[in-house]
Design a protein that fits this description.
mainly alpha, 4 helices, 0% strand
């Protein structure tokens, strides 16, 4: 597959992940218990995580020749933390504001890792 396909899939996954988490966090901040919003947010973020993983490894394969530099491992760790964040989002609605900023921070860290590729 051409790298452009993986770029679009990766960005689609990122958008889906943050849309899903945004919906779940907004639901918690509003104090709502709407199961439809919870389900939609969980499905959207879950599919987004899968898209991110598949496209990320596709890009790694097509562009970087499957070399695992430190920044790649750090991005995998960020992906795992973002994937586990849904548990905290759903079980700790009182921490929604902190989780909002933590999620944003993880997105920024991920962007820094991919665009600057620190040599560690």
């Amino acid at each position: 597959m051409p790298p452009q396909f993986y770029y679009v899939l990766h960005m689609t996954g990122i958008l889906m992940l943050f849309m899903g988490y945004g919906a779940l966090l907004a639901r918690s901040l509003a104090g709502g218990e709407d199961r439809r919003v919870r389900r939609l947010g969980a499905i959207t973020s879950g599919v987004g995580l899968i898209f991110i993983l598949v496209a990320g490894f596709g890009l790694l394969s097509t562009i970087h020749g499957n070399t695992f530099h430190g920044w790649v491992i750090a991005k995998i760790v960020v992906w795992i933390v973002l994937g586990a964040a849904i548990v905290a989002i759903n079980r700790k609605p009182a921490a929604a504001m902190a989780l909002w900023w933590i999620t944003l921070g993880l997105g920024v860290v991920s962007s820094i890792l991919v665009y600057y590729r620190p040599p560690f």
